[in-house]
Amino acid sequence: MLKYKGYIGQVEFDAEANIIHGEVINTRDVITFQGESVDELRQAFEASVEDYLAFCAERGEDPDKPFSGQFLIRGKPDLHRDIFAAAAREGKSLNAYVIEQLDRLVHA
User: Model pTM greater than 0.85?
Assistant: First the structure.
C-alpha cells in the first residue's frame, strides 16, 4: 500500500506487460498510476494524486476526500437488537462495540 495526502494506493504487478500499476482505493473517483520500478510507481502515485487535486481545483470542485469515518449500516431489526444487547452486556455503546468488532475482523 502507498499513502500520500490521506489517499491510499493499492498496487498490483502485471507480468505480461511487465509493469506495476495501481489505483487509489479510498475515494469514489478513479485515480490510477503505473511504473516500471518501485520508485517510479511511488512518483506516479503521488503525481496522480496531485493531478487529481489540480483537476478538481481547475473545475472549481471539491475533490473526493478519503473517507470520513462515518457510514450507515442497514440490517435486519433482529440483528440490530442482538448487537445492541451484546454491546450493553460489555458496557459499551453500540458504536464503540461495532467499531471494535469491525477492527478485530479486518485486522485478524
Answer: no
Segment 70-96, tens digit of pLDDT: 888 899 999 999 999 999 999 999 999
Quickly count: other Cβ atoms within 10 Å of residue 52's Cβ: 19
| Residue 10 shares a structural domain with residue 55 | yes
Q: Find the domain containing 85 and state its range.
A: 77-106
Cell 499513502 -> residue: 3
Within a domain: 68: no
C-alpha to C-alpha distance for 40 and 2, rounded to whole angstroms: 12
Does some domain include residue 69? Answer: no
Q: Residue 55: pLDDT band by 50, 70, 90 thresholds?
A: very high
Q: Are 58 and 48 in contact (CB under 8 A)?
A: no
